[in-house]
Design goal:
Layout lengths: L65 H4 L24 H25 L9 E5 L20 E4 L2 E5 L8 H23 L2 H4 L10 H25 L9 H11 L16 H14 L17
Helix pairs in contact: 2-3, 3-5, 3-6, 5-7, 6-7
């Protein structure tokens, strides 16, 4: 969430039937009638394999800023793996979540710094990580005041704020996966800020855009943050122990956070399939080169 400035288990049952063999006496009986000659049924002709037409290249509008469609960040190769001494278990309280976040942001800074510098961009770390509770607005830290509604976390002005009760529940492994995904996503907005994408990208850059166009543009921004977050996690899968259950939980989270699950439904972050597509693209390729949502066909940012 960007704040504007300003298992299934598949069970297979196999039944084994034991047959009892019985000796049967058989005799060959001569038949006087002629045996008809059977004409074999011709095998059906296979249907021709359809020739798939290539997907037409999405033409980027001339008004879309070059900094978002051809940013130097996209061409800097893989995100490096860095040593990251995360807590030994998922966070179970407000204090533990804040401590976890502050360790994780240092890992993100360390991993992304050389990528940003190689792109000839000025790097600066996230200035502040803080937590708040949306149920208690009066107690919200000043740095996180006026948080967006429906947000588990948000980024604004080099700060990442976390609505901590969203990540403390009854399923610690999934809660941890959800938090990692969200926090890496918010850092993705920080990268967009460093790369000049946030400054140059405006929802009103087209003349008199419709509401649908504005929402599509916003989804491109948010889905890119998903992908950048996935690139970091993919590059640092060892430090984050993304194997077995933890890896499966991250995949689950990526696929089950679509706009269609929100109430009310607002199409500003992407469907579950689109969010999974971009998060997993970053995770598998571990590179910002996978994250250019601004030149993707509209169907991929639905």
């Amino acid at each position: 969430m960007l704040k504007a400035a300003g298992f299934a288990v598949l069970a297979v049952a196999v039944a084994v039937v034991a047959g009892v063999g019985t000796a049967v006496r058989s005799e060959v009986v001569a038949v006087s009638q002629p045996v008809p000659t059977l004409t074999p049924t011709p095998a059906p002709r296979p249907k021709p394999i359809p020739v798939l037409k290539p997907t037409p290249i999405f033409r980027v509008e001339a008004t879309r800023p070059k900094v978002v469609v051809a940013n130097r960040l996209y061409s800097q190769g893989k995100v490096p793996a860095v040593p990251c001494a995360l807590p030994g278990r998922p966070p179970l309280s407000k204090a533990e979540l804040l401590s976890y976040a502050r360790v994780m942001v240092k890992c993100l800074d360390q991993a992304w710094r050389p990528v940003v510098v190689a792109a000839k961009l000025k790097f600066r770390p996230v200035a502040l990580v803080e937590v708040y509770d949306s149920r208690k607005p009066a107690a919200t830290p000043r740095a996180c005041e006026d948080p967006p509604k429906r947000a588990g976390a948000f980024y604004s002005d080099d700060k990442i704020c976390i609505n901590w009760p969203e990540y403390i529940g009854t399923f610690p492994i999934r809660d941890e996966a959800t938090f990692r995904d969200a926090f890496a996503h918010e850092y993705g907005h920080h990268l967009q800020n460093l790369a000049g994408i946030l400054d140059s990208y405006e929802l009103g850059h087209r003349k008199k855009p419709t509401k649908a166009v504005q929402l599509e543009d916003e989804r491109r921004l948010e889905l890119q943050a998903n992908c950048l977050g996935g690139a970091f996690l993919g590059a640092n899968s060892v430090s984050f122990d993304l194997f077995g259950p933890k890896y499966l939980e991250l995949q689950y989270v990526a696929k089950h956070q679509g706009d269609e699950l929100s109430a009310p439904v607002i199409r500003d972050h992407g469907s579950g399939s689109s969010r999974a597509r971009w998060t997993l693209a970053g995770l598998y390729q571990a590179s910002p080169s996978a994250c250019n949502t601004f030149t993707a066909p509209p169907i991929e940012v639905s």
